[in-house]
Design brief:
Elements (H helix, E strand, L loop, with lengths): L9 H32 L8 H27 L4 H33 L11
Length: 124
């Protein structure tokens, strides 16, 4: 007997997308505030990793939304729920972990070298 889900999780797909989107907007706003405060904090010698603590909750929301979105999307395309979760969860978590590590290294690099170090158009 062929099994096809009667009601694909379109609602969960939308919830995951909106959670990731709103958390991304919160991450963007928090990151802008952190970057604007860097000139004031340079004289205080703050730790580079202290700013990552402020970004953890919005990034966790992006990760959860991405996991829900990917798992629901795979389930819509016909995968069983457990298989969709088994594929979507590790792929989403690994991708978000790599993005988190890259964000941390870029913030450390910018704090150490300055914002001009990212300008690829100038040769000075």
């Amino acid at each position: 007997m062929y099994y096809f889900p009667l009601q694909p999780p379109y609602f969960l797909l939308l919830v995951g997308f909106l959670a990731a989107l709103t958390s991304g907007l919160a991450l963007s706003g928090t990151l802008k505030v952190i970057v604007q405060e860097w000139p004031n904090e340079r004289s205080e010698n703050t730790k580079p990793r202290s700013s990552l603590k402020q970004l953890f909750v919005p990034f966790l929301g992006i990760t959860a939304g991405t996991c829900l979105f990917m798992s629901s999307g795979l389930e819509i395309f016909g995968l069983p729920s457990l298989l969709a979760l088994g594929v979507g969860l590790p792929v989403s978590l690994l991708t978000c972990l790599l993005v988190w590590l890259q964000l941390g290294s870029m913030m450390t690099f910018i704090e150490r070298e300055g914002m001009q170090s990212l300008d690829l158009d100038s040769f000075s």
